[in-house]
Amino acid sequence: MKRYFKYVKPYLAAFILGPLMMIVEVIGEVLLPSMMADIINIGAADHNISYIVSKGVMMILTAFIMMAGGIGGAYFAARAAMHFGRDLRKDLFQKVQRFSFANIDSFSTGSLVTRLTNDITQMQNVIMMGLRMMLRAPGMLIGAVIMAFMMNASLAVIILIASPLLAAAIAAIIRIAFPRFELMQKKLDRLNSNIQETLTNVRVIKSFVRGEYEEERFSKSNEELKNSGLNAFKVVIIQMPIMTFAMNVTIMAVVWFGGNQILGGTMPVGDLTAFTTYVTQILMSLMMLAMVLLQSSRAVASARRIGEVLDTQIDLTDEEASQKERSVEEGKIEFKHVSFRYYKNSKEKVLNDIDLTIEAGQTVGIIGSTGSGKTTLVQMIPRLYDADEGEVLVDGVNVRDYALHHLRNGVGMVLQKNVLFSGTILENLQWGDENATNEEVGRAASFAQADAFIRNFPAGYETELGQGGVNVSGGQKQRLCIARALLKKPKILILDDSTSAVDTATEARIRECFRTTLKDTTKLIIAQRISSVMDADLILVMEEGRITGMGRHEELLTSCSAYQEIYESQMDRKAGA
Known about the structure:
Oligomer: single chain
Strand order of the largest sheet: 6-9-10-3-11-12
Strand content: 5-15%
Structural class: alpha/beta
Number of strands: 12
Largest sheet: 6 strands, mixed
Distance between the termini: 67 Å
Radius of gyration: 35 Å
């Protein structure tokens, strides 16, 4: 838990003032029963109206001071908890942003969402409750016990008998509750993953008429969360009846024995009233402590889950980079006997002994069957993954020696899955360059053959896109993503099957723009259609993680059987169409 002190330190004043102001309320709660006893024992017994009035005024003033203390304590507790949660959530989000792809693969999306939201909320709640109860509950417990013994030591023995029994019951409840709360959070992870996946892919679900299947899957996850929640809260449910029962039994015992003392003339009536209040305060303080401890058991489970993310070793950093200030200037790429596995204990390599040089400004086409390693190959360049063997160089420098920011700033990528964000088209395109002018944005969109359809929208570049760009077609989404990458003005441009949804005429215009406007940019184009790469300076044919063919289109037609097969199958389909 020491790691969380950094989130406490900046707001230490609020963390201290909150409990201290609650002490003001505690002092009032301890004094009020004694004042009431005096009114009954002295004012009422002697029919002394002025005494009753003076004590009443004191009680009213005390109540106002208590109210001020309670409000102040609650305010500082809320302030401390909210700031703590904000800073922790910020650091957790930043840590996830620094994750490599391999790190992200070890957590589900739903689990990370739960940790960033629900788990941090649990910690906020326990801090807020803890600051309000930290001194209030022990203070009220100690103060009430002292006042009870000062008032009637023989009667206070009843409290000494009830309190340890109650404390033991609370400890047993907490011990049982902790693992159940941890399991409940895991079930919440699963439910969040289910919701996230379903909402993201709702169009696919509808097109395959799988709504009922997804409803059943959601119902199962929802039922599991309900059962684990009930299992956890069964323990909490038991707590309140046990506490109430103990309180009532203790009060009955006090009234019984106190009543006998009143009849015997050894105890004033007012003292019994005050004593009963003190007993209630003692048991209430124990209930408060129990609530804090129960909430803490859930928060500890959440803190452990947050700690798992914060403690994750990021396996891809630039801390040992030797040329952190260097930027990509030309775009020359070299692979020197590069091999890679996604699962390090796997025998099969996704990339196997790749040896390749791509000159700056070249256009390189990459073609091959699904799973041949095309995407993995290009992901080595901006260090989305690191090679297990060999090295990848950009401009003669090992990519590990660049600062990640400078390396990735020099590489523009249009991934297989085209991702757009909520916001306007202009805001999405400015991801490539947040300072780009409207003219620069329009030029990049024109190169990507996107300007025309954008201007056909009533709001043009200010058109609001739904989450993921759901209100544009697949081809439009691809062209927007290409425009975004072009606006970055990269030295290396990677297009990973990013014109598959674009018609051949539009694709030809995009390729022509690449030839004329991106002469000095190194372009890597992964494609399924040979027509997309046949004009490239160099074409790579990949099979099972190896480069089995390399050359221009005409050379590969005579030297590479795999390329010939792909060409003939596509030409046959084209002729048949």
